[in-house]
Request: fold
Amino acid sequence: MLQRCKAQIHELTKEQPAAPLLLLTAASVFLHFVLAFLCAAACTVWLFARGMRKKEFRHPDFLAAAFFTLFVLATALISGNFPGAAAGAAIGCVLFTGLLFGKIMTPRLFEAALDTVCATSFFAAAVAFVQKCIPIWDFAVNRPESTFVNTNYYAGALALVILIAVYKLLFTKGGRIFYSVTVVLNVLMMYLTLCRSSWAPVGVGVLALLLFARRFKLFVVFLVIALAVAYLSVGRHLILPRMDDLQTSAYSVRKELWDGAAGLISRRPFTGFGPLGYFFASGAGLVPVKEWHAHNLLLEMLVSWPGATSFLM
Reply:
């Protein structure tokens, strides 16, 4: 298996010298965020050092990425949000990495990157399993976050890899056992995270993929199953976890977060707090409930950046 992977990487490297960097960046999706940032930074360095010619620095995409990075850094520094400034630098590296990957991507490299994400999810699942089931230094947790800093972030990445594996099953030949195991394992991990919000995008994404694949019979079957699961989970509080407190404790806690976010927006409507805005404000005692994020994507964006920029994002 290892020899086969090494041979494939060698072939891809002959086709594109930056292939190992791209694959490492794909793997970092399920690794610690510091490593993901370092991968994006390495891609940015490669982009400036070798990947671009002078005329490309004047390309509209590059200019837009540079302007947006400077804007994000400015919004954070104005607020004294230094963690947000670091996140802004990471956002800039991700944008430049996207430009680089757009330049070097080939169909084979794209499929290899998706395979890398699927493979790395096994490592993240092992970490989550240890966190959930094996008490080490009193570290056993009810909702594992794996290599991420927040359980919901991990669940979002799980939704992504599940859809990647379903895409592979529908549109590519070979590796069916690997992709099937990837789907089953990551669905199990998403169940263990007790995250409620990731199931809907997975269901909608699978339905969209079935339509694109013109698998209409399977689409109908999956739709019926998805509606049944939704009814039993939300209406009867069965199957999916933590559906019994949606309208009670879950709503009341989120209402406090949303009210706090609204207060932050009114405090800085024209500059925002920069990336990780709610996290920064929470640490500074500007909101009643301490939390990583506002549990609402639109409010999180409005806290972080001025309104018009948030809607553009």
The chain has a mean pLDDT of 82. The chain has three domains: 16-105, 107-227, 249-312. The chain has 14 helices and no strands. The radius of gyration is 21 Å.
